[in-house]
Amino acid sequence: MAKNNDHIRKCNGQWSVPDGTAVPGQLTIEYEKGAILLEIYSTIDIEGNNAELLFNSINAVRNYYVDVIWGFAGELGDVTLFQCSWHSSEGVGAGLIINRYRAEFLIRDIHLRKDFRVKAAKFNYPYLGGFFFGFNNLNLLHEIKDLTILGDYYNKEMVVTDNLKLNYGSDIKEFFEDLGSKKRVQVIDEVIFKYNESVQIKDLMIDALNFRHLLEFSYGSRLPIQVKEIEFADLSDEQKLRKRLHSEGENQCYHITNFNLNYAEIVQMGSLNQNEMLFSRWTLSLEELTAVIQRWFKLSNLKNVVDYYLESVNERTGMKSPQTHVKINNLFLNLIQGLEDFYREMLEPQAIKKDRELFDMKKATILKDIQDASLKQWLNNTFKFTRYLSLEDKLQGLVDHCRPALETVFKPLDWTNFPTASKDLRHTLSHGMNKSQHLSADLYLNYYMAKLLLTNCLLQALKISPIFYRATLQTNYLHNELFGQIITRQKAAAKRINE
């Protein structure tokens, strides 16, 4: 395998779909750009179709997606490229065509079919030390500094769902710095996902991203992660034997490369102060943190709400864009949409919810039978469920839902105008009538109040016990900053009115 530089690796090999005809090609791994690219040079494409015909004919039907590509790639040995897509083609003469394919995953030392299943997987997540160990992480770091422990340092397993357990901890390694005599210790924070019953890789990724969303909610920023190793289920005896020949002991984990999860960035290790997290072992007991994680995995219906929230609290982004009126407008609209979705998923009265679902089902049946496109569109836009609560009513319901818990920690805020003002602002901004609202005092005030409200809606959904809830709000810098901004702006608004 040839190395062009530290950021690009290339290797030549033979490539095919499972049990297909092998063709020559080159695999390129671009670490800086975060891309896995395969180029094959042949008269046929990777699936055995006439490559020249596909290249020259505009009417030819190409299969743009290939689940699995097998390869033998020099020093990499057996390789499985998973979730591949055709990228481009280029003619080089004499009937030869270069076909390029991008891959989401590169799995080394094994050939897998598309229906392979997973038993366990190891991921790197940032700043796990403080999240999982809290104050005990300081003791761990002290022991590492004194070189009293090396190797894997894991706590006990955490049961998350009926089928999933998390084993979290650190891989601690000692190495020499710059080929000199000075030793350094590297701490790599890891989580191992273990399944009682094997799952497909898509289910593994759903769980991994769900856990990332939990950490992002606590940290208040988007996070890169890395999938490092996977243990597969139902391998043949031959595959297990080959793995033993290439690894130490009975290790059956395979190295995997993927860039989309971590945006080609470095996953930062170490710990965060308790004030930088909404919740962690700094403020929760192990039992309470376990319960929070378990509840989070049950709240799959709130994924969109979490995405709206994260867009508004990305506090640790290295390249912060300027606070233009367009950005603030969009962040405010995202927050209001998140609040509205939260109400529908968590607080909407059951009677109304059942009526709405029945209405939607009957409406879909009627629309399906209408052939005229313009009539279908008119009916869809006109025929509305009449028992929907107004946005103002929903926002008032959310204020009533969160206010008692908030007032156990902070001085009472004036929420009187928030539902009506936010409803009016949402209507104005979403219809393009925002010329007078650019960065206005009212917009900023309601933006901060909406952010505080949505944060606490999500915390309430996790059912953190009152004593830990107060500790979470009292120590978190985001909550204290929001509260300070709201108090300051409400006093300024009152002063303007009096003047």
Automatic annotation (TrEMBL):
Residues 10-255 form the ApeA N-terminal domain. It holds the Pfam family ApeA_NTD1. Residues 333-464 form the Apea-like HEPN domain. It comes from the Bacteria. This is ApeA N-terminal domain-containing protein. It comes from Mucilaginibacter sabulilitoris.
